[in-house]
Amino acid sequence: MLTAVVEAKLSGEVWTDISADVIAPIFASSGIPGNGVTNRVADVGRFTFALKNDYGNSGGLAGYYSPGHANCRTGFEAGLRLRITFTFDGHERPYWYGRVAPDGIVVDPDTYGRRRTSVTAYDWFYQAIMHTLYLPAYTTSKKMNEVMPLIVANMPIAPLSTSYAVGQDTFASVFDTVRYNTTAMAEFQKIAMSELGYVYLKHNSTSDEVLVSEDRLYRNNVIAITTIPVPTSLSDHLTDEDGNYITTEDGDYIVIDTTEAISLDNAMMALEYSHGENLANWVEAVSNPKKIDADATTVLFTLNTRVEIAAGETLSGFKINYRDPSGGAKKVAGKDMVTPVADTDYWMDSVSGSDSKDLTADLTVTVTYGTEGAEYSLENTGASTGYVYLQFRGRGIYTYDQVSKIFKDDTSIDKHGTHKLAINMPYQNNPIISDAYGNIILNQYKDPRSIAKSVTFRTSNDELVGVFMQADCGSKVSIVEDQTGISENYFINGWEFTILDGGYNSELGNLVEFKWYLKRAADDAYQFATWDVTTWGDAYGWNF
User: Fold this and answer.
1) Rounded to a whole number, what is the largest CA-CA distance in the chain?
2) For a Cys staple, 345 with which of 254, 278, 340, 521, CB 3.0–4.6 Å?
3) Residues 6+ apart with CB under 8 A from 229
């Protein structure tokens, strides 16, 4: 039977089963809930449930799940790590992992009421939306799978494990679009859109949490789920040539691992249908060419006022952002930044604004450069108060005007009106590449299509339990539904499930209602011709 266990790391790294105190319904979500061209990165996943907070809980204490209460269970607080694991036929699978949100504990205050504590937890993508990238180093010639670990390395909390598919494109410059408020989540979206790939979390038997990135062609090679393991109770046992059962030393029969075909045809409780959603007959493909200074002499930052610093004082932890000295660029980054030179890039005066530089020998400047700005500290080692001038020089990287190309289908526009879609690829600085993407996307979306946006099932039989245990974000499934005429392969972009209140029977265990958010497999079937340099020569001439 299907059983669920909710666990918490109440102390150290040890998981504690708190299922006895959990009150259904239990809800969890993960992945990408949309199916449009720009839906590339997972939303923050959620996990919600309630706990018994009266004398009937496992601690026998009222207030057992009330942080700050004298009876509160040790370790029960915001930030607590949680997971839910399902077991079926001896197979165990972690399904969701995350942390209790900062405001994720709500205690019912009524002494004579329900006396429950509601809990809300978020998965790792909460860290991605909260973390602002801090001084990432400018880098060049990187694929998506090489950029992903650089983003994660900038974050204080990393996912438990990762799986990055090798990217198709090599991006000439990376992190030059980072600004003071750029989040890790925003950077994931930039790299995913530039590659036309995906970023999301998976959960499997080897890791509670896997950060996944897919390259543009990854889904071309994914095989649809067509079989599930046959439950042990229905499986055959190993025999010898004479048909006698072979047993272990303990006398147990040896079960043969077998599979059976599945069919989800018309098995769903609900199907969310759309005809014409995501129609796009006017596609604007945007690339972002960069201008880079020829040498590292451009002043990308200057202190507008002199900084007063007392004798023996240290001022540290100041963060600045680069600017375009001409004032024309929308976005400015820096590379090859110069170590500040005394009396050129910084000096200290005894009289503010005098530019006498008479106290420069007493000033120590320390700087850490990043792509979007720098962090610096100033130390006055002398015996007198000084006034500091400071500038930073390097090679500026500028994004002035984006290059866009319009792709439109006049026949579709005449029939359906204009439906626009803008495809911005921040790290594609080659207009020719975005040109190819624009053509492909127009051909895929210029005509209305009938699609399944989501499907909902319940674990009402072994087959659906097996599918629930096996499928995850990125899985490929066949969806057939007679009334709508839907019959094709889809990818699971995201999912959610609810363990129903009172949903338990003696044969199947917990009753789970689960929903898949779908993306047509055909929409991710990108194919590009590859120039064979060995056979046909380089880009500047054919060799026969």
Assistant:
1) 104
2) 340
3) 89, 91, 257, 258, 259, 466
- Domain tally for the chain? 2
With tokens 């303990």, the residue in question is 250
User: Which has the closest alpha carbon to 476: 464, 463, 492, 455?
Assistant: 492
For 220, list phi and psi in degrees, rounded to 5.
-60, -25
Rg (CA), the chain: 29
Q: Are 413 and 282 in contact (CB under 8 A)?
A: yes
CA distances from 286 to 225, 271, 404 (A): 36, 35, 4
- Alpha-carbon torsion (440, 443, 448, 451), positive or negative: negative
Token representation of residue 249:
């030393």
Query: Which single residue is written with the structure tokens 């504590």?
Result: 117
Has residue 297 been placed in a domain?
yes
Can you tell me which residue has the tokens 């001409």? 326
Pair (325, 392) in one structural domain: yes
Closest CA to 320 of 263, 377, 273, 388: 377
Residue 309 vs residue 542, higher pLDDT: 309
Identify whether 411 is part of a domain: yes
Contacts of residue 453, defined as CB under 8 A and 6 or more positions apart, other chains included, come to 35, 272, 273, 274, 277, 517, 518
Mean pLDDT of the region 166-176: 92
Note the pLDDT tens digit of each residue in 302-361: 998 999 999 999 999 999 999 998 887 667 899 999 999 999 999 999 999 999 999 999
Residue 233 corresponds to which amino acid?
A: S
Residue in the block written with tokens 């706990």? 51
Does 544 score more than 50 pLDDT?
no
**23, amino acid identity:** I
Report if residue 366 sits inside a domain: yes
Q: What is the 3-state secondary structure (H, E, C) of 422-460?
A: EEECCCCCCHHHHHHHHHHHHHHHCCCCEEEEEEEEECC
Cβ atoms 283, 442 nearer than 8 A? yes
Please state, in angstroms and rounded to a whole number, the distance separating the CA atoms of residues 421 and 414. Answer: 17
d(CA 362, CA 388): 11
Please tell me whether residues 377 and 358 are part of one structural domain: yes
Alpha-carbon span 347 to 378, nearest angstrom: 11
Instruction: Among 388, 419, 446, identify where a domain stops.
Output: 446
Q: Give Cα separations from 336 to 50, 63, 327, 397 (angstroms).
A: 54, 58, 21, 10
Asked if residues 286 and 423 have their Cβ atoms less than 8 Å apart, the reply is yes
* Cβ 228 vs Cβ 258: under 8 Å: no
What is the pLDDT confidence band of residue 534, given thresholds at 50, 70 and 90? Answer: low
